[in-house]
Amino acid sequence: MDRFDSLLAGAMARRRLLAGGALGIAASTAALAQGSGRFIKLAMAGGPESRPLASDFPGKGEMIVLRNRPPLLETPMSVFDESVFTPNDRFYVRWHWADIPLDVDAAAFRLTITGGTRPVSLSLPDLLKLPRMSYAAVNQCSGNSRGLFTPRVPGAQWAHGAMGNARWEGVALKTLLDAAGIGADAKIVGFGGLDRPLTDVDPFEKSLALNHAMDGEVMVAFAMNGEQLPLLNGFPLRLIVPGWYSTYWVKALNHIALMAGPDTNYWMAKAYQIPDTPGADVPPGTTTFPKTPISTMPPRSWITSVADGARLPHRPDLPVGGIAMGGDRGVRRVEVSADGGQTWRDARLGPDEGRYSFRRFDAAMQLGAKGPHALMSRCTNADGLVQPMKPNWNPGGYMRSCVETLHIETV
Amino acid sequence: MRIRPYLAALGLTLLAACGPVPDKAMKSAVEDIRPVPAPLTTIRSASITLPEDNQTFGDGPDGELLDRSCLACHSASMVLYQPPLNKKQWAATVDKMREAYGAPIEPKDTDAIINALMAKAPARR
C-alpha cells in the first residue's frame, strides 16, 4: 500500500463511520459541518451562501470552513475591525495538496539552497543567528473574493477573508542567496515546501526573477506577529513577498534553488495565470486571451465596522471604520461614499505601519434620510492607482479589487 | 518600518486636530498603535491533529462514485460549496482534476462522474 492508497483508505474509513446516513446536498453541508454548529452567510449570487464556523482547527479561533482537507479557512470580516494586524489564530489558511506538514521537528529541519556556487544547508538555530529584518505586510490569496465574481466561476469560494496582515520577522532572502553564491547563469529562484501531492504531479513550487529575489525586501520569515509561525500558516519558515499575492509566499519553505529558467512547473506555467490586461479584466465568458502569471496586488479597501445587510438606528452622521491596503505601494488616500458612489469625501487615515500593511481609516457617513444606504470606500495608493467601480472578471476568479458596496438600512 | 513613539504621538496629535471624531474611530486608531513584538529567540517543534472530516456525498451509486473519485485528495465541501455550474463547467473541472492533479479517475468513469456531480453538487441544468 503506497501513501496514496493509505490516504484513500483513510478517507473511505471516515466515510464508513457514517453508514446509513442518507444525505442530500442541503443535509450534507449543514448537518455534518465541523465544529461549533454556528453558520455564517456569505452573500454570493446563486449560492450556496451558508458556511460553517469552527474553532476546532489547532491554533485557530473561530474560522469559516470552506474545506477541511486540505484546509481552506477564511477569516470572518469582523476580525479586520479589531486591528490592522490579523491575529495568528484568526489568520486565513490555504493549502493545495492533501499531504501537508502536521508534525515538524525543529531540530531536524533544514533549509537547503541549491544551484549556487556552493550548497547551503541551514538549521533553524543557524537562521536565528543571521541578521534580521521585520516589517508588516498583507498576505492576500490571488482568489480572495472569488465568490463575488459575476458570473460566478469555479474555485475556492472565498468572500473577502482570504487575507491578513502580520508583522513578519526573518532573514532577507538576499542574505541567503549571497551565502549560496549566485552563478553567472542564474536567472530565477525557485521555492518549495514540505507539502506534497499524493499523485505523480508537480509539487507546489513557485519562482521569482533573480532581481526580485535579490531586492532586499523578500524575506524568509520565522516569526509572525512575534511568534513562531502556526503550522497551518507555514511553520517553520515562510517566504514573504511583500506587495505580491500569496501564491508566492511559499509555506513550510525548505528548499530554494537558483535556476537558469524558464520555470515550466505547473504552478508557474499553467496555474495562477491572469489575463494580460489592465486589472486582469476580460469580458465575462472569455476563455482565450494572452496570459501572464499573477504578481503585484492593486489597492483595496473595506468598511469593517458595519456588517453588510445591517439594520441600524438612524443618525445623520454614521461613524464607520475600515481597512485599506495599497498593494505594492502605500495607501495615499481613502474616500467614502454613502450614496452608491455619486459623491465622495475623504476618510481620515490611521497610523502608517508601512507601505505593505493594512491601514485603518475612519469617517462619518452622511446618511440623509432614513432608509436603505449603499456605503462604499475607495483607496488610492501612492502610485495614484484608484480602485475602479467596475468589478473585473476572468475565468480564474483572480485579483478582484473594485470598490465594494455595503447595503445597510437605517430605521 | 517601526512606528517610533514620536511618530505615534504625532499621529495622535494630528487626529486630535481633525475636529469632531467619531467615537469608534478614535478608539480604533489608538488601538492600532502597538509595540513591535520582541525578536523571536527560539523555535520549538510543532505538531497538530486536524479535526475529523466525515462528510460524504451520500448514499447511492452517485454518492459512492464521488466519494471514491474525490475524497482521497479533498473534502466533499470543496465540491458542495461551488456555485451552480453547468454540465460543461463540471466536465472541465473533472478534466482538470484528472489531468493536472492526477485524480484517481478512470477515463471510462468520466461521464458518470459528471452526471453524479450534476445530481449531487450545485448545478445549472
Question: What does this 3D model show about the protein?
Answer:
The complex is a heterodimer of chains A (411) and B (125). Chain A has 2 domains: 111-293, Alpha-Beta Complex (Sulfite Oxidase, Chain A, domain 2), CATH 3.90.420.10; 300-410, Immunoglobulin-like (Sandwich), CATH 2.60.40.650. Helices cover 11% and strands 32% of the residues of chain A. Chain A contains 7 helices and 27 strands. In chain A, the strands form 6 sheets. A 5-stranded antiparallel beta sheet of chain A has the order 1-2-3-4-5, with no helix packed on it. Residues 1-34 of chain A have low confidence and may be disordered. Chain B folds into 2 domains: 1-36; 60-120, Cytochrome c-like domain (Cytochrome Bc1 Complex, Chain D, domain 2). Chain B has helices at residues 5-16, 23-32, 60-70, 77-80, 87-99, 110-120, and one strand spanning 46-47. In chain B, helix 3 (60-70) crosses helix 6 (110-120). The longest helix of chain B has 13 residues, at 87-99. Chain B is elongated. Chain B starts with a helix and ends in a 5-residue tail after the last helix. The relative contact order of chain B is 0.12. Mean pLDDT of chain B is 81; it is low at 1-31. At the A-B interface, helix 1, helix 2, strand 3, strand 6 and helix 4 of A face helix 1, helix 2, strand 1, helix 3 and helix 4 of B. Strand 6 (103-104) of chain A pairs antiparallel with strand 1 of chain B.
